[in-house]
Write a structure and sequence with these properties.
With about 170 residues, the chain is α+β, with helices and mostly antiparallel strands. About 35% of the residues lie in helices and about 15% in strands. A four-stranded antiparallel β-sheet has the order 1-2-3-4, with no helix packed on it. A hairpin with a 7-residue loop joins strand 2 (about 25-30) and strand 3. It is flat and about 95 Å long. The mean pLDDT is about 85.
Length: about 170
């Protein structure tokens, strides 16, 4: 499959070289031709900037070559054939970890909600207990009923600017 998919597009001004690391997880862009702008930027494969360095005497960037495998070719083939089994195990572990994190987050949210509802209940009880005192301070008027209000709409017109022009009778 030779299709190229652009994941992200970033810019490194005056970049003269691009170097991928042997694992394919990182890419470096370098400026080596101009002494004032020389340096490099290290990116992840999906375009996130990890590190940036500038220096006048910078000339070249090379990743270490991948060391030779300590496994025999037969063992490498065996691992490649069984890779889907390993990936299923790791995916299951990742799923369990995400599930545990979600449960923990849900429990934290539930605790916060319960604390808030307890505070609301406490404040409501306090509001009810102070009703008689509020009524006495307002000369017997009850203002706690949220449905006891009248909506009025007032339209105010204001002259912002007034210009008086005299028109010449001949122009008309």
């Amino acid at each position: 499959n030779n299709e190229v998919e652009v994941i992200k597009c970033e810019e490194h001004y005056m970049a003269s070289e691009i170097e991928w690391d042997p694992t394919g997880r990182y890419v470096a862009t370098c400026v080596t031709r101009y002494s004032a702008e020389n340096g490099y930027k290290l990116w992840t494969f999906n375009g996130k900037l990890l590190h940036q360095w500038n220096g006048e005497r910078f000339a070249q960037l090379q990743f270490r070559p991948r060391p030779p495998s300590l496994l025999s070719p037969e063992k490498e083939k065996e691992i490649k054939k069984g890779l889907h089994k390993y990936s299923q195990v790791f995916n299951a572990e990742d799923s369990d970890m995400r599930s545990d994190e979600k449960k923990k987050l849900d429990e934290e949210r539930k605790a916060i909600t319960e604390a808030f509802m307890a505070l609301v209940a406490e404040r409501s009880a306090q509001h009810k207990a102070e009703a008689a005192e509020r009524r006495a301070l307002r000369d017997g008027a009850v203002s706690d009923d949220e449905d006891d209000w009248v909506e009025t709409e007032v339209l105010v017109e204001e002259v912002v600017n007034e210009v008086e022009e005299v028109l010449d009778e001949l122009a008309v």
